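Minutes, project check-in
Item: structure for the 636-residue chain
Input as provided by the requester:
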Amino acid sequence: MGATKPTASAFQFGVFELDLKAGELRKQGVKVKLQEQPFQVLATLLEHAGEVVTKDELQQRIWAADTFVDFDHGLHSAITRLREALGDSSECPRFIETLPRRGYRFASPIKVIGKEETTAVAEEKQPSRTGDRLRWIGGSVLAGLLGGALLLGIVLNTNLGGARRWLLRESNPAIRSLAVLPLENLSGDPSQEYFADGMTDAVITDLAKIGALRVISRTSVMRYKRTQKPAAQIAKELSVDAIVEGSIEHTGNRVRISAQLISGTTDQHLWAEAYDRDVSDLLRVQDEIARSIAREIQVKLTPQEQILLAKGRPIDPEAYELYLKGRYFFTKSTKESVEKAIGLFHQAIAKDPTYALAYSGLADCYSVLGVSFGAASLSPTDAITQARAAAERAIQLDDMLAEGHYSLATTKLLFDWDWAGSEAEFKRALELNPNDASAHHWHAHLLMAQARLETALTESKRAIELDQLSPVTNLHLGWHYIYSRQYDLAIDQLRKTLELDPSFGYAYWYMGRAYEQQGKYAEALQALRKAQELLKGNTAVSADIGHVSGVSGDKVAALRMLGQLKKAPQGTYVSPVEVALLYLALEQKTEAFQWLEKGYSERSDLMVYLNVDPRFDGIRSDPRFQDLLHRVGLSP
């Protein structure tokens, strides 16, 4: 809070007067009932009118240190009661403005009555979000003009909100990119974080359907959860024109969502709205938020986008919450969390057998558990049946569901080796959701596997534009450079990835692969062992350590690792392709081809990269290898 204001006995604002001596709030001279905590909140905000008063400052002022209370809930309740007394609203406030993750601000002209009667105007002390409310600027020509416009609006009963939005739009550059920050959980229950995160993801997904916008993906924006950074700084870091921020309060089957759009260049609030709905109506609310923002920034929706943003249907509240929990655990990307997500998606489907999104989530889980570069717990042949069936069911239920087409595209790529079918599904997914970073990322996998390296690079970079703070999308670009034999670029990119997350084991893993191709075996083993330490239980990393040991001349270490992989515990999947690579390092080609045939029969996902993986260069001209490429569908 700023400097102490002149000693006051009362404050006047609008038709209200707060009498500190009498402890009363009066409206045109008539006492308004107001409890003690809302009264103290109002007094504090008036004493620092125009300044941001943080939640911590309000807590220190109003709640004693030894008070045992859910402070966030108590403050939210006090603000709600105060707004009711003032006839104010959070979505279009005249008096009390909420600044998510920062605090509150009194944003209306006031008159201070004290020992020395002083007139004060709510002014900002710093240039943060200064234009979000039209304010009187005493003595200036602009004040007179705006005042006249406002008075004229009142007289003519015109739409002042629309005029305000027009004025703000005129003063702001066009918005063609935005980021949705994590919604603040106001439920007072930490266990509801999954709901706030899930709704954030849902709003991002709906906005991402608008092709004229670039919408930053979930992985990048989640880094700003509970951040205190100003919106303008976040917009600069993410290279976007605007920020969407807000809060959510989930109690029983009721949900209240507040959202606001803020210019990334001027810090002005361009739009704000609140929605108080039943959980069953949330799909429609998500669509409504996206349509409102598109309308506000004057983005023209295509006929298909209009359909996509108007198709929300009622959903069983329990099924919806189970789905959100499933997605929450899926994003944690561990074997245990993905298996937990599978159970939650099955429960959601049991509640609502027509819930297409839940089937798409199920397909993604089974795909992850069947890939060799993760902590696979299913063989590809076990994973493929369930992944394909769930993805196909999602599309049967909703052919315009981008997530369903994306799920089927990855299944066709990794397990079916249906190259044309996979590309068609990726294109359909991106047509329905052009801002889906994951779809661009995995489409790049398909292109890379087919040795269409320039086109793959374009898709990789597009994924990073949409999700620049994601270690996974940055990792993929490094992988792309390895498969295009640009090892210095690969190492530079993987170092950038580690700057985002120093504990990201996959970056060390692929750095080890790049060093191997440069003949830097000591550096390769060091990086791979770091990956093994971070990615506990990943058999593919262990196999690569054995492979590098073998090619560097340590046949004993390679044989020892081969023996360990063949004795892997039951329930742990070891890719035959990784075993084949170990045999190649031991210069035993016959055995290597036997294991590659096993990989072919099991539909190992690593078979799709045979055409570009440099570790197979030594046998690339062998007729047996050419025959494998033909059968996988990768012949030139």
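Outcome recorded: The chain has 27 helices and 15 strands.
No further action items on this chain.
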